[in-house]
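User: structure tokens for SDR family NAD(P)-dependent oxidoreductase, please.
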Amino acid sequence: MIVLGSTSEVAQAFVEKALQEGEKFEKIYLFTSSKETTERFARHIDVKFLQQSEVIELDLMKGIDYNQFDDINSNLLFCATGYLGEGTEEGLYDNKNTQRIIDINYAKLVPVMNYFAQKFESRRSGTIIGLSSVAGDRGRQSNFIYGSAKAAFTAYLSGLRNYLFDKKVHVMTVKPGFMATKMTEGLPLNPKLTATPKQAAESIFKAYKKQKNVAYVLPVWGIIMMIIRNIPEFIFKKLKL
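Assistant: Done. Predicted tokens:
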């Protein structure tokens, strides 16, 4: 199993859920920009599940030597890489903030995804799970830079799913709504619309086993976003969303 963004609470919860459910992995490759944090998780799954893993440092904002990944083979890739950034007006016009949001959520992530997707294609098997966001379903004034990057990632996953279908590789897009994670700490989230990492992992694992194409972590978000997508533009642009 390959995990991109393995410091994510959702990614770690998914790994644990998969192991609890009896999924067998020769090795779990934990890609991370924070090696020390991820090594603690690696020790945890070794002690709790006797699961062998390898922590691999990967910083999307730096150059990547793909040759070091040549020996990595897997039938499951879980991508939880993401960066919310600063969504205020001050952050909106901060080009460094904007560039980082675009790079981490899409521009510099897609080449890494493509590298492993090609490996899956050559083996004609496997599943790729990508965490996108409901923010990508329609641009809203509160977070449209982040939302635009996630919209691009959603479109990428959709196209990749279409391309890899007859190559026997399944691609699943996950659209979490509000998540109680470090990334959203301090934000005023509605508890009825917010999932914990454990809840998210359980939902994603079920969707993975059913080979769903698109999955919302909480089903209510599918309804909410359907309504938001269908609000006429002349009304929508007046709303404070």
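User: Anything notable?

Assistant: The two ends are 38 Å apart (CA to CA).
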